[in-house]
Amino acid sequence: xxxxxxxxxxxxxxxxxxxxxxxxxxxxxxxxxxxxxxxxxxxxxxxxxxxxxxxxxxxxxxxxxxxxxxxxxxxxxxxxxxxxxxxxxxxxxxxxxxxxxxxxxxxxxxxxxxxxxxxxxxxxxxxxxxxxxxxxxxxxxxxxxxxxxxxxxxxxxxxxxxxxxxxxxxxxxxxxxxxxxxxxxxxxxxxxxxxxxxxxxxxxxxxxxxxxxxxxxxxxxxxxxxxxxxxxxxxxxxxxxxxxxxxxxxxxxxxxxxxxxxxxxxxxxxxxxxxxxxxxxxxxxxxxxxxxxxxxxxxxxxxxxxxxxxxxxxxxxxxxxxxxxxxxxxxxxxxxxxxxxxxxxxxxxxxxxxxxxxxxxxxxxxxxxxxxxxxxxxxxxxxxxxxxxxxxxxxxxxxxxxxxxxxxxxxxxxxxxxxxxxxxxxxxxxxxxxxxxxxxxxxxxxxxxxxxxxxxxxxxxxxxxx
Length: 466
Description:
Blueprint: H1 3-19, E1 27-34, E2 40-50, E3 56-67, E4 74-83, E5 87-97, E6 102-113, E7 125-135, H2 139-147, E8 149-150, H3 164-174, H4 179-186, H5 190-202, E9 206-209, E10 212-215, E11 218-220, H6 222-259, H7 280-299, E12 322-325, E13 333-340, E14 343-350, E15 356-359, E16 371-374, E17 382-386, H8 388-399, H9 402-418, H10 427-447, E18 458-463
Parallel strand pairs: 11-12, 17-18
Antiparallel strand pairs: 1-2, 2-5, 3-4, 3-6, 6-7, 8-12, 9-10, 13-14, 14-18, 15-16
Helix pairs in contact: 6-8, 6-9, 6-10, 7-9, 7-10
């Protein structure tokens, strides 16, 4: 054989080796069947044949995605299977279709992997298949969806609350509808409505009393919103007026204290816990409106952690949870005060934030289903330090008269929302109400050129350890 021909054959063989991975013909998938493309838990069954004399590990990734709706949940599930050599197996692949309206796409991707802990790459896929279905909202349901929903920041991204059926179910329970009515209005089978009720009950969000289903947290409907609107506006105006009148005295006090050496004159010296006081936007938002007035209004002056025994990725807010129906989406605000290995600190913001969540490695003793969480990129907070002793006097001047102003509003909210129920279970309503006040006060202060937004509006106040 001529040398040039030999070289050509070798080159072709090399190209073939790289173009077709060694496992490409070793695994065959056929006879895929899905139990149903309806809401709820489903099973996909797939016959997979291993033609190799070596065992294989197959990982199946199920991607579920909605499009075309006001809310479009996404889910991904991964399950691995061990395949004997020269053998066929029926793989049972569980997944859940969340209750939502719009166009549903379910995609099954089959990967050959060496180890179940390996990351998945497109090059490992040896088979994939997509399925679609469309869910149209009944007319009465569409009216409810058009009103809009509001949830606490981060909660709306959890799999419990990322879908329209759960939000509608809770709203209609608040409105006094029974489960059969809810099934008829939503178009959902009664067995799926029962499944949602049981799921929410296990999370402590609902409870049954005989044939009645009752709420365990604050759900505000359109009638509540209409009644609360003038109360919110009044609170915003009065708190704004009080802060505005206190600002000149606050400025004078900062000058006096700095001249006495109580804290730095340099507003950018972040190592000095008094420097944050020069930054009026984060100080008023974080230290005054949330950590001082907000804690007093919501929790009687006792510090609270909205994600106690949770975190922003799992976002279980317990007694501070709320759901609002009948309000259009707008920039959010939140207050997250915590103590952990990084010390005592709190986060607050104006504007919604993106969050990075990575599942923990349970091999290191972490809790299964938990996450590592972090903010990054454009969502990384501006850092300030604070010391309670240093900020006490300036904050007292800035807050002068405001505590007395907000006290009556707490009673008004209680009368409108809680209607004589156990108030401790409805603290989330106070958290929501105060968030509306915070947004309104900050907006008025900005428009009156009394404060200027610094950074991205997201702040981390770290308590000084000195």
